Amino acid sequence: MAKYIKISCLGPQPYRIDQAVPYPEAVEMMAAHWQRELDRVLPDRPDLIVVPEACDRPYQHPIEKRNAFYRTRGNRIRDLFAENAKRHQCYITYPAHIEMPDGTWRNSVQLIGRDGEIVGFYHKNHLVPSEQSDGGMTYGQDVPLVETDFGRVAFAICFDLNFEELRLQVEKLQPDLIVFPSMYHGGLMQSYWAYSCRAFFAGAVASLPCTIVSPTGETVATTTNYYHFVTATVNLDSAIIHIDDNGSKFKEIKDRYGTEVKIHDPGLLGSVLLSSESDRFTVQDVIDEFGLVRLSEYFDNCRQHRCTLVHE
């Protein structure tokens, strides 16, 4: 059945606070900044708000001052986000540098649920080396999948997007949505991750375009040079279907279900995005009814066919 989710992405410039400002005051300035930013999209009643990497890092503070700020900050900004999540019944990401109980630091994103509680988190697996050598960060090791009331969520942060081994791990998780808080845009890598993982992609990038990308690698919505926030609705009850061996059934599907099924062809890709727009059946029901094959299964069949002939 149609599974609509409204996603908001925010990409303001990193917030500047004079280094002479006392840390308690600086923390409150940061809190006020982020309340203003959240207020830009909350009227749209989003299901999920995504904000950039290290969202509450004071801009251009040296490391010792930055860490002192963080220790004063504690959970103040996270709690602000949690209060908003609970009040507005939405999920909000909180990407931040956090100090662990053993004194090490992580570049992380915490996902806050509609009740204001933490429902999942991810530690950046692929740091820029200077984050470790100069910033004291420790590499994350796990690649979690978080179950939400709208679907399965996986994460990548900034530099992560460059690493095939991480993408392959995320691909195996079969997420419905990849959340990407970042300082780096990634360009074509956003579309590549979305297509290869068969997932929607929500990227919030500081000072650069924030984008919502479909599983066919197409940009659904983006911020502009005028506005650094964007909201769009996507349907997660979708599947990528290759035209080969499936395309002959598309007319029959449309004849039977009309507007209750959407078959979107992005062109040039050889695949379409099949979506259930109905409250009566899921996209998997349509796949089963018409004997369709999802893209990943189709490619696996092609590999098997090649191996069979090569070894004959």
From TrEMBL:
* Key words of the record: Hydrolase
* Span of domain CN hydrolase: 13-236
Q: What InterPro entries does the database record attribute to this sequence?
A: Aliph_Amidase/BUP (IPR050345), C-N_Hydrolase (IPR003010), C-N_Hydrolase_sf (IPR036526)
SUPFAM superfamilies on file: Carbon-nitrogen hydrolase
Asked if ATP-binding is a keyword of the record, the answer is no
Q: Which Pfam families match?
A: CN_hydrolase
Gene Ontology terms, MF aspect: hydrolase activity
Which residue ranges run through the membrane? none
Q: Which domain of life is it from?
A: Bacteria
What's the name of the protein? Carbon-nitrogen hydrolase family protein
What organism is recorded for this protein?
Paenibacillus hodogayensis
Lineage of source species: Bacteria, Bacillati, Bacillota, Bacilli, Bacillales
